[in-house]
Amino acid sequence: NDKVLEINDLVIQYITDDGIVEAVNGININLEKGKTLGLVGETGAGKTTTALSILKLIPNPPGKVVSGSIILDGINLMETSEKDMEKIRGEVASMIFQDPMTALNPVITVGDQISEAISIHQSVSNEEANKKAKEMLELVGIPGERMGEYPHQFSGGMKQRVIIAIALSCSPKLLLADEPTTALDVTIQAQVLKLMKDLKLKFKMAMLMITHDLGVVAKVCDDVAIMYAGRIVEQGTLVDIFNNTKHPYTEGLFNSIPNIDDRKAELKPIRGLMSDPYNLPKGCSFCDRCDYAMDMCKTIKPVKVKFSDTHFVECHLYKENKDFKLDKLK
Ligand code: SF4
User: Fold this and answer.
1) 232 C-alpha vs ligand 1 centroid, how far in Å?
2) pLDDT tens for residues 50-68?
3) pTM value?
4) Do 211 and 227 touch, CB atoms closer than 8 A?
5) What is the dihedral of CA 47, 274, 224, 247, to 10 degrees?
6) Does residue 125 register a pLDDT over 70?
7) Which of 234, 251, 317, 326 to mutate to test the pocket of ligand 1 (most atoms within 8 A of CB)?
8) Confidence of residue 104 (pLDDT cuts 50, 70, 90)
9) 40, 100 in Cβ contact below 8 A?
């Protein structure tokens, strides 16, 4: 069985004094060994909440998985104890975050941080853990002799490589990467992404890449899920999303990134801000910002329209006419 992650109808709420936010509102994800799914959207779309829920790290309160299920490598996470999760985190799934500095301990050498991650999960001698830590460091392109150095002696890109070494030290089946290269400059970003892609293939892992950047998606993802206000509004293969864009929000994301072929082309950011999460529109959550909005969009929630086995969208434009063409793409 190649299925590593299966999320079914997942609903996650944050219950605060100001009201209830449906951070994740009924999403479905399937991810197989060796594949990378890009989870794309603006801040507040529910991407990080989704990733944290896979490690059962949603702070409760105020967060709560209200319904749905998450099956990770055949394990139903709705039924696991915190003790089981301690084993699952790192061994079955591990996560890397945007800012490598907060994830590393400044007063422990990088070598010790990697070998510590190994010792927590595997009953090996210190010597073996150190040997493996050195191998991991070399695998991410850092000379083994630098084991005894501290995080401040490394550049941002190197620190992120150390984090990747820690995350992969117990050969997890799933790597969750939350904007792993956003804090890095562009050249380093490309190197780190290439490294992640190579290691994914080497370890035959599945990867969930959380990003707001379609350029990152193009470099590493096989499939793409576009998230908006807690829903996946469009999902497809990389080709479906890039060559056959259907959702006005996806189109807006493409229009708001620089066009490499046409440098003079004007950037067109998506107008407005994401709706107040405490007070989402009754119909389509995107209706206040959508250039194609119709009357029905304000009051009726769009349902899924399928274009193929891999590609679907939630938008009223295609309900009656599947051939509708978006015309605001450059
Ligand atoms: Fe725009 Fe309506 Fe489609 Fe929502 S359902 S994206 S408002 S056209």
Assistant:
1) 13
2) 999 999 999 989 999 999 9
3) 0.94
4) no
5) 160
6) yes
7) 317
8) very high
9) no
